[in-house]
Structure formats: structure tokens, C-alpha cells
Amino acid sequence: MTTRCGFVALIGEPNAGKSTLLNAMVGAKVSIVTHKVQTTRARIRGVALEGESQIVFVDTPGLFRPRRRLDRAMVAAAWSGAADADVVVLLIEAHRGLTDGVRAILDTLRERGSGQTVALAINKIDRVKSETLLALTQAMNETFPFSETFMISADKGYGVDDLRKWLAGALPEGPWLYPEDQLSDLPMRMIAAEMTREKLTLRLHQELPYQLTVETESWQERKDGSVRVDQMIYVARDGHKGILLGKGGETIKAISQAARAELEEFLGRKVHLFLQVKVRPNWLEEAERYSEMGLDFRDGNG
Fold first, then answer.
1. Residues marked as binding?
2. Per-residue confidence of the chain (302 residues) as pLDDT tens digits?
3. Most exposed: 36, 51, 57, 155, by fewest CB within 10 Å?
4. pTM for this entry
5. Which residue stretches belong to region G4 (predicted)?
6. Which domains are delineated in the chain?
């Protein structure tokens, strides 16, 4: 049998469902999923197998109009991920349709004109009527020459298998890049940090989730098979630290318990998780923080 292997970039506006689709494709949680926008910061790779094909997914940050250095670095990472891919999948939301943001993404795809295979995935199809869906499909394909169009619900799993099978056949022939049982090429330290950041994002409100970052400072394997994980949460202001800790430390305790439980499920073993909070007013301007997120600090230049 001929093996195939290649990279598939999932692109779209923030909250289009890219991380949910990635996790559904891979069959495990490798990408942060919340109801808040702009939660994926780095290109997160997940690896899926379909027949004789190994599909390496790149879950890019949502494409939006950047305002801050971090925003600009995220958008640059998204387009870089798309440029390196064998196939690009543009994910749009069925109920939002052809928005200004989607038009801007299509304009950039046209400008880049790399001759790449670009597929369209219309997500959250359970939110609209079939006639709306058909009209949207027609409008999208009149706007851009997509190789294929899929109607899916990443959350409920509708159409995900069809998309994965098509992608498997669209990849170039070649040897697999990763071991059969590997789900992601992200280091475990980064996956652990992302899991904690997801719990912070779900628990906290308004702007705070975008003003913090999580780094895994140490990872110690223990003789009993468990692992000790020490993480640092950086926040921009003293007031943020108080919100994060909560009354009597109850907020940070709840976040730690939730992150530990998910990490234990992911690793299949006991985890001892220790969180600390540090105020660093200028962390958004520190190159080291960007490296830890898998972003290029220079991409944030105006």
C-alpha cells in the first residue's frame, strides 16, 4: 500500500470551531477549546491517521484585524501555517455566513495565489435551515474556487469523517512523519500549559484571559509513575492577581483541580500540579514569553 503524509492548515475567523474540529479529527484533546475568541495562540499540530494516510493538522490562531503585538504575532503565525500546508481548509460558521472577516481571508488567499488545494468547511450546520445552507454554499463557491465543500458540525461530529477521508486522499505520497501513536508534535510541557490556560479562560471573564499566559517551569517524573508539574501564570497587573487567586485562594484552587483532572485523563496517570501567579507588567513585550507560546516575537512588530 502507498502511504501518504502531509500538512493540513485549518484557517478561519476566531471562534469558527477550528480547535473543536482538530480535536474531533485527532480523536483527543490537543487544542484549547472555549467559547471565547482568540484562544488558540500558536499553531498547534495534531496528528490523525486515516487508512494509509497520516494527516498532520495545523490549528492556527483565528484570523482577525490585529491591534496589539500579540495579535499581530498570532495572525502572522496563522498565515505562516497556511503557507506551509499541502491543503488549506477554510472553516466558516453556517449562521454567520460570508462575513467581512471571511471576505478578507478570501482576498488574502487570492493574493497569495500559491496554487494550493483549498477546501471549504461550513461548520455549525445544525444552526441553520437547509435552504440557507445551500444559498451560502453557492455564494461561497462563486466567490472562491474551492476544491471541495463540506457541511459539518465539528461539535456533534457530523461530516467530520467525510472531510478526514477526503483530506487523506488529497495529501502527497510519502512516508509518515510521526510514530503511529503520537497525537501531537507539541512538547507535553506546552500541552499542559495550554490545558491550564483553557481552564483560566473558562473561569475568568472579560479581558483578563487575554492579559495572562501560562508556562510550565518544571516537569518531574516520579518513581511511582506519577509526574509533578510546576506552572507559572503571568499576569499584567496586581489587580489581576487578586482576581485569579479569588477569595481565600478558591479560584486558583478550582482552576488547578480542573487542569489536573484533564491532564491526568490525557496522560493516563497521576499528576501533582502546582500553580503560582506572578505579576509581570510588560510580559506582552517580552520575547521569551512569545517563544514559550510558539510565536515569533518579531512578527508582532507594527
1. 12-19, 59-63, 123-126
2. 789 999 898 888 888 888 889 889 887 666 655 555 455 555 667 888 899 999 988 867 666 676 777 777 777 776 677 777 899 999 999 999 999 989 988 988 888 866 789 999 999 999 999 999 999 999 999 999 999 999 999 999 999 999 999 999 999 999 998 878 777 666 778 888 888 988 888 888 655 656 788 899 989 999 999 999 999 999 888 888 988 898 999 999 999 999 999 899 888 899 999 999 999 888 878 888 777 767 777 776 75
3. 51
4. 0.68
5. 123-126
6. 4-170 (3.40.50.300), 188-300 (3.30.300.20)
